[in-house]
Amino acid sequence: MDSAVRVPTLPGATFRLPPQLEGLRRLAFNLWWTWHPRAKILFSRVDGPAWTRYRNPIPVLAGPVAWSELLDNPAFMAEYQQVIREFDGYMTDGADHWFHRRHADTLSGPIAYFCAEYGFYESLGIYSGGLGVLAGDHVKSASDMALPLVAVGLMYRKGYFRQTIDADGHQEHAYPDFDLTRLPLLRVQDQEGDPLEVSVELPGRTLSVAVWLAQVGRVPVLLLDTDVPENDEADRPITHILYVRGREMRLHQELVLGVGGVRAIRGLGVEPVAWHLNEGHSAFLLAERARERATPCSRSTHRSRPATSASTSISSGASPDRSSTATTGPRRAASRSSGCSRSGAGRTATIDSST
Question: S-S: 230 plus which of 83, 175, 208, 354, CB 3.0-4.6 Å?
């Protein structure tokens, strides 16, 4: 199978680049640069002070750059061409990597990976510590191995708090306020070319959830965002803060991650054959997949299979019966329905409690 899961997106931040350096745009919007030092050095050479301040190529490229000086610099141009060549080769060549060499015939679809936080880089502050860094490294390693993976998380516009000590020695904390147009993120499109939105039912109302893409090498990471005009003012901050205080808000976050994450994947027409839960924050995906199995679409001709049972390690114990599944065909997720029930094919769902 093709190891790459391709997610369509709307155009990102608009900034002008010289045609000779247009490759910087696709490099900036792929977090491949976060674990390849030469790419980071290249961005620092574009504008050193801006890179030191932001650690993020989007505001660097969007700022006042002396492009003519860079174009006339043979050393910079040679380094640019080498980095872009390495990046383009990385993105197009996965056939000789670990997955294709050993397991290309094992999976008929990608693996879905769910986690509440991801530590990709300091300028994308949607993580707090060990769990996020571990999840980020999982995604980067999956990319390096050309493993077919699609990851799901939440887009925390205010991230995780930053601690400081005031002059009297008291601890203070403050939350950042991210401008998504200045981050290496792109808005995801549905199968009809419209911005993808999915719905999650809450008591007495239906929540609309936008979907953003963080492309991490070969792996797409879907980040769910409730701060959209369709939602009530009280619901828009659900995905603002990582590990927000309050049981009800945390429950809503986990519903968005688990239920909304499954529906976002379905809205893209992606059919995972395995589902991985990194810790229990996304456990509601099991409830959503059980709902799919219990209430199949009228267009679906699949026969039901035993529902997944919940435990510390959750597994059906057998390979999916792919012959019993009929594809329901594309649907428009932006209609914000609860999500057409799908066949629910999937090999295992696991809760990783290692962190």
Answer: 208
